[in-house]
Amino acid sequence: MARNHAPRFLKIVDDIRPQINECTIEDVRKRLDAGEDFTLVDVREESEFSASHIPDAIHLGKGVIERDIEKTIPEIDTPIVLYCGGGFRSALAAYNLQQMGYRNVISMDGGIRKWREAGYELES
């Protein structure tokens, strides 16, 4: 659910959503509980990540992910789940990573807001 996001921003996200893979917070919780091997990436700002984040997530902010992804996750087939506050920035980041050749990228719809509302664990 958009939280006072600008209409043009929402249009960009709506336009790319059919071109990316998305999952729910429950999907990610199940994957974590099953011990699946994937990299969980928080694309929010550093201050947001420092305040709280999903355990075992790494931080690559939306502002630098395209610049730094190849150093952090060099293998383009690595399973990656991206999340942000509500699923908008992570959708844009997923699209950009796909454009860079990453083949196994998923955006977590609902972001950390839905994760928190579900009562799932966070760390700071």
Description:
The chain has helices at about 5-15, 25-35, 45-50, 65-70, 90-100, 110-115; strands spanning about 20-25, 40, 60, 80-85, 105-110. With about 120 residues, the protein is of the alpha/beta class. It has a single domain, classed as Rhodanese-like domain (Oxidized Rhodanese, domain 1, 3-Layer(aba) Sandwich). The longest helix has 12 residues, at about 90-100. The protein is globular, with a radius of gyration of 13 Å. The model has no long low-confidence stretch (mean pLDDT about 95).
List keywords for this structure.
five-stranded parallel sheet, Oxidized Rhodanese, domain 1, 124 residues, globular, alpha/beta
Q: Order of strands in the sheet with the most strands? A: 1-5-4-2-3
**Roughly what fraction of the amino acids lie in strands?**
5-15%
In the CATH classification, which architecture applies? 3-Layer(aba) Sandwich
Low-confidence stretches: none
CATH topology: Oxidized Rhodanese, domain 1
**Could you state the order of secondary-structure elements as H and E?**
HEHEHEHEHEH
Radius of gyration: 13 Å
Number of helices: 6
Helix fraction, binned, reads: 40-55%
Instruction: Tell me the domain tally.
Output: 1
* Ends apart, CA distance between termini: 25 Å
How many beta-strand segments? Answer: 5
- What is the approximate shape? globular
CATH superfamily: Rhodanese-like domain
User: What is the SS-derived class?
Assistant: alpha/beta
Q: Which CATH top level class fits?
A: Alpha Beta
Sketch the major β-sheet: 5 strands, parallel
